Predict the structure.
Amino acid sequence: MKNIYSVLQGPCLTEKANLSQEVDGKVIFKVHPKANKIEVKKAVESMFNVKVRAVNTAKIHGKKKRVGKTVGFTSDWKKAYVTLSEGKINFTDEL
């Protein structure tokens, strides 16, 4: 990946993600499926001006969905658990 803005696709704003951010200092992002841990770390540090301690990634398989007789799957995606050592990212602040 050459562009750091294509690595991060958005934050995961779930109750579990908010709890892990408050308790453990981990922020969860939806990332590009081909992005590696080094690229995710560089993208988060440059975009949010924080210090990253560790990055863990997980591939999430698409769920089975049905509309009438047709059965399909949602897209597979990748999740990154970013542990911060310095700084804080807050997505719930209004602009």
In short: The beta strands are 8-11, 26-31, 51-60, 64-67, 70-73, 77-86.
